[in-house]
Amino acid sequence: MPELLQFLLSGITVGAVYALVALGFTIIYNASDVVNFAQGEFVMLGGMITFFAHAAGLPLPLAALIAIIATAGIGVALNKLAIEPARGAPVVSLIIITIGASIFIRGATQLVFDKQIHRFPAFSGDQPILIGGATILPQSLWVIAGALAIFFCLWLFFTRTLIGRAVLATANNRIAAQLVGINTNYVMTLSFAMSAAIGALAGVLVTPITLTSYDVGLALALKGFAAAMLGGMGNPKGALVGGLLLGILEAMTAGYISSQYKDAAAFVVILAVLFAMPQGLFGRKSTDRV
Amino acid sequence: MKFSLTTTALAGTLALVLGFAAPALADIKIGATLSETGPASFLGDPEAKTLKMLVEEINAAGGVNGEKIDLIVYDDGGDPNKARTFATRLVEDDEVVAVIGGTTTGTSMAIIPVFEDAEIPFISLAGAIEIIDPVRPFTFKTPHTDRMACAKIFEDMKKAGISKIGLISGSDGFGASMRKQCLEIIGEYGIEVLADETYGPTDADMTPQLTNIKGKDGVQAVLNPGFGQGPAIVTRNYAQLTVGLPLYQSHGVASDGFIELAGAEAAEGVRLPGTALLVAGLLPESDPQRAVVVAYKDAYEKATGKPVSTFGGYAHDALRILVDAITRAGSTEPSAIRDAIEGTSGLVGTTGTVTMTAEDHLGLDLSAFRMLQIEKGGWKIVE
Amino acid sequence: MRLSSKATTLLILAAVIAIAPVFFPSSYYFRVGSLIFVNGLAVTGLVILIGYAGQISLGHAGFAGIGAYACALAPVHLGLHPALAAVLGAALSAAIAFLVGRPILRLKGYYLAVASLGFGILVSMVLSNEAQLTGGPDGMAVPELGLRAVLKAIGIDLSNTEFWYAFSGLVLVIGAWLALNLYHSPTGRALRALHGSEVAARTVGVDVAHYKLVAFVLSAVYASVSGSLLALQNKFITPDVAGFMHSIEMVTMAVLGGAGSMLGAILGAAILTTLPQVLTVFQEYEQLMLGLVMMLVMIFMREGLLPSIARRIRGRAE
Amino acid sequence: MSLLQIEGLGIDFGGVRAVNDVGFSLKPGEIVSVIGPNGAGKTTLFNMISGVYAPARGRVALDGEDVTRMPPHQLARRGLSRTFQNLQIFQSMSVLENAVAGHHLHERGSVFADLFSLPAARRRSRASEESARALLDRVGLGRAAEQEAGSLSYGALKRLEIARALALKPRVLLLDEPAAGCNAVETEEIDHLIAKVAAEGVSILLVEHDMKMVMRISNHIVVLDHGEKIAEGEPASIARDPRVIEAYLGAQAAEAQNADG
């Protein structure tokens, strides 16, 4: 039984990492129908900038704050320079643009910083917490709390704030949103800043566990993307549940079936879910208008 | 209209193809294709930096036999297909006399046929034994084979009376290759693998695998072949779960960076086979390798500001072997260089003392590996 | 019509392939050329899938992997000639594409992207994990095709790189010919119709699910043959051939050059294949430049390089 | 004997009854128009009949066969074809190719033959191309055959859709606002075209806002309001029906109010 609990705790830890990345996808997707494959790079930047600022002597919280602000700035730049000019391009072009951005950011990071793997200290030490024979690191609790907090904030943002509803309105019908007086350009800029900041915050939270280097972004983006699709793109609830589900699935497969095929199991389940529910677990159903 | 347009476009591409810059003529052209970026950049980056640094040093000191070395380095990103193209380019276009490289086993195996066909000596920096076994006339390598690392570890285990172990290996090239080679020879040491787990190169948590190993009755020690962040996370999870058994890492993480990543506390007591390079300062004055490894370590850390790693050491040795061979051959004919490399004898490198023969294109024995243990955030030789 | 007429396209392609070697200073250029053709073949398949049928796949490297490993495994385990092994690989790819395609192609946009991506990752995972069979991430050797020796016996003596330049060039021309035939055929019209408007295509009787599957299976066969050619040429293969990055590379080639135009897509393959070779000049800046090129082209030349340039020149001429 | 029989058809969107309990029938060669204010559910009704939407209730029978919820391509095989209110043109194709594409059911064959451009495949393509040119001439687009479809005017595209739908050689043709965006001359041309097609025995179901046209060519009219059938009958009787007048006037009054606010 302690094994099951340990697998579960491991799954929740990893799942919370995926959920954090997946949550970053939702805002941009909601505002612009763009899946930003550079989302993983935001996470990487959050970790890398924090590390180097910390290494330069800044206290960790300040280093993290700088990283989050700087990454948000990069997110805004990405929107202004690459996404806005490409408005209305087909899905495949947008995929290539954001993957291009991801490669670009990776290339720049390796130049500005380095190609080494880095880690900074966990926020509350490394003393494992014992729960019924299983253990979890305090940093994992930070990550889980971070995922829940961001989920909650996003939920409030999209349902309770005017600007959050404006984001949804922009996604539903850009022209109509403009007609009712929403500044859609501002909405887009805001959503990229927020997505990037969430990504960077994720990077700050997970780096003590996952470590970071210039090339961790793509793998994170893929898993986060898969998690977001599993839950249903654009829905914060979907991102959270999808991420946790994916993490737990991987841990259970690694624990009970085969660690070699744990990623395979995750993708098999994603495929199965999409076949049964083409919009993911919590995605909106859409009807073709003709 | 359309016709002329497409022709222009294609002609443009052609011009691009033809426009590859041809490097200036130089005295001794040495090529390298390394994985400076991509999943193996952890290995390839220090290798490339080492080569560039050493060539600069050699040229500043007057070159080899009075001729300067012209080093051409390509970054294959760890992609064997790209590596093969660069290998062809080095041979056919750059017309180098010898090549160092192939950071990974995959890239090395992919480019060997190019050099064997062209009869250009090639010194690989990758671990697998397949590279030099069977011996191919023009192919050499400097790192110990992964099999030797396995042997070193198993010897140490045997000495400690360990006969049942758990294995957790990375599913990347390095981890998978070492796992395979360890499993091939493990029977010779009377050691049994009770649990055989793997993890992906970008995984964030290995506690499920380690929980299973911990839960297996009779496991006396755990071995983790891998490189990159994986082993650091394994080590941290190992401490988190308080597995309490001896943990063996591989030479893939033999660098100070590993202790930093895993944390001195979690890494306490971890054993691994490493080269003299890692414990340069601890070597007795009488050690023949001391002078070489201290000089390289100091130069590298001064030039790059990064801690030295075993992998850079492989590149260091490859270039030393090559320069030594060219000096002895007194010629830059590829076949003469090849013969001279095969005649390498008693050359002291970072990995050990190299003596090659027609049957042995590696020239190292197990004594070149030192069993190291991490204590209080530093290395200790345990032999 | 976006595509220039069939004959012109084939003529240009064949002429460039035949004439280019005149300008090659060393046989390394034959190697780059043959890689362009191998990639061009996979991209031609994607033109059918993306350009004709308007579907997307981020997992086609999986089929290239199947084709490549068929050439490595079938000769050893089944005693097949490598050429037959390539055919077997293509058949296997077609069969797998048929089975996987039916459920996958019900999905649209990003959902289709993630499903195909999952498929590609599954294939590369199997290739990389089943080490006893495939050699794992270190890869495995592939036997010699043997055609060069046959040619030599009848008096045509080509170097290795020259042979592969000619052979893959020939296969590319054949592949392009077939794809162009398809474009102007009833099947091609059905594919382009469902691309233009799925609902309208259905109301004129196009069985959309069936034709999407046709495009998927055909493009899988192209990718498979391309993987086989790569394996046979390199005589060595690793699971990278089936990896996610290779899938992305293939799609980028097609879309960058212009998935709506055969020559454009092949031009895309040529550019992305030569770019890393050209960028060696910039050393450290290579990734930066690659990312920049991908972004700039897709932002400013939305239809891809060739169609956009063509449109601009035509616009000026009028 | 009716060719198309609709009974009790209905569908809901998000709990709202978009169309409810609509029924009528079509005889061979008959022109039936569905009219009603904006949002009455006309296009939704079309989408259900043509298989684009799956109705929640009711039944559609084509020549006695139950074809409810049958996908559009299978309906096409049974001779049901349609045009769209919001144009669904194959934009990247030429005008001719659009019309040729309508021949799909007649020209489809083995993919293998198509790949290798075998004589059989070329023959099929040639036959449908000849037929397509004739159809384009018939809708007055013969001269535009080689143009890119995207370059045509709205009215011309409407006619192109008709040509494409006719290529199927349908028994039942659903036309969704064929005259929208057309000038008076074009409208009259379409008018004639529809009448001629009907005279050849094709049943036509028409949604149209041009009341003059509807009254002129319909044999029978069905009036929808808020998703329900409120009246049906011959044009003359419909024009006098108070429920119809109220539905239209009520809608217009509401529209006027909206415009003021």
UniProtKB/TrEMBL annotation, chain A:
Record-stated family: Belongs to the binding-protein-dependent transport system permease family. LivHM subfamily.
Residue spans crossing the bilayer: 7-31, 51-78, 90-109, 129-158, 179-205, 211-231, 238-258, 264-282
Question: Predominant location of this chain?
Answer: membrane
Keyword DNA-binding included in the entry's annotation: no
Domain of life of the source? Bacteria
UniProt KW keywords: Amino-acid transport, Cell membrane, Membrane, Transmembrane, Transmembrane helix, Transport
What's the protein's topology in the membrane? Multi-pass membrane protein
Where in or outside the cell? Answer: Cell membrane
The signal peptide, as residue positions, is: none
Its protein name is Branched-chain amino acid ABC transporter permease
Does the keyword section mention Transcription?
A: no
InterPro entries the UniProt entry points to: ABC_transp_permease, BCAA_transport_permease
Task: State a single Pfam family of this protein.
Answer: BPD_transp_2
Q: Which CDD domains match?
A: TM_PBP1_LivH_like
UniProtKB/TrEMBL annotation, chain B:
Classification via CDD domains: PBP1_ABC_RPA1789-like (cd06333)
The lineage's top-level taxon is Bacteria
Q: Does the keyword Signal apply?
A: yes
Q: What keywords appear on the UniProt entry?
A: Amino-acid transport, Signal, Transport
Q: Which organism is it from?
A: Shinella yambaruensis
Signal sequence span per UniProt? 1-26
Please give the family membership noted in the entry: Belongs to the leucine-binding protein family.
SUPFAM superfamilies documented for this protein? Periplasmic binding protein-like I
Q: Does the keyword GTP-binding apply?
A: no
The family database entries (Pfam families) matched by this protein are listed as: Peripla_BP_6 (PF13458)
> PANTHER family this protein is in?
BLR7848 PROTEIN (PTHR30483:SF38), LEUCINE-SPECIFIC-BINDING PROTEIN (PTHR30483)
- Residue ranges of domain Leucine-binding protein in the record: 28-375
Protein name (record)? ABC transporter substrate-binding protein
TrEMBL record, chain D:
The UniProt record lists the ABC transporter domain at 4-251
Q: Which SUPFAM superfamilies match?
A: P-loop containing nucleoside triphosphate hydrolases
Q: Which PROSITE patterns match?
A: ABC_TRANSPORTER_2 (PS50893)
Transmembrane stretches, start-end: none
**Source organism superkingdom:** Bacteria
- InterPro entries of this UniProt entry? AAA+_ATPase, ABC_AA/LPS_Transport, ABC_transporter-like_ATP-bd, BCA_ABC_TP_C, P-loop_NTPase
> What keywords is this UniProt entry annotated with?
ATP-binding, Nucleotide-binding, Transport
GO molecular function of the protein, one example? ATP binding
The record's section on Pfam families has: ABC_tran, BCA_ABC_TP_C
Official protein name in the record: ABC transporter ATP-binding protein
Q: Can you name the source organism?
A: Shinella yambaruensis
Q: Which gene encodes it?
A: livG_1
